[in-house]
Design goal:
By secondary structure, the chain is mainly beta. The protein has one helix and seven strands, in the order βββββββα.
């Protein structure tokens, strides 16, 4: 799955198409597409068990065994 994050970001979700039951941990990659030549990998978040978006602030919370990763969109927060 591919979704936009702000004006120059992409969030790529890696799934196993052959076996993707609900509740299986997912891997996410956050990419910066502001560069004209090619996207730049900003972060890889492995083993995401739960995601919680906040539509009012544009913030996305990703929970895995290591804790919580927060992806913010300051332009939406204002």
């Amino acid at each position: 799955m591919l979704e936009t994050v702000g004006p120059s970001g992409l969030l790529l979700t890696a799934t196993n198409v052959a076996h993707d039951p609900v509740g299986d941990p997912q891997s996410y990659q956050l990419l910066d597409t502001a560069g004209a030549s090619r996207p730049r990998l900003l972060a890889t978040i492995l083993g995401v068990k739960q995601r919680l978006p906040n539509p009012y602030t544009g913030t996305l919370f990703l929970l895995n065994d290591d804790g919580v990763t927060v992806i913010r969109q300051p332009r939406i927060e204002k």
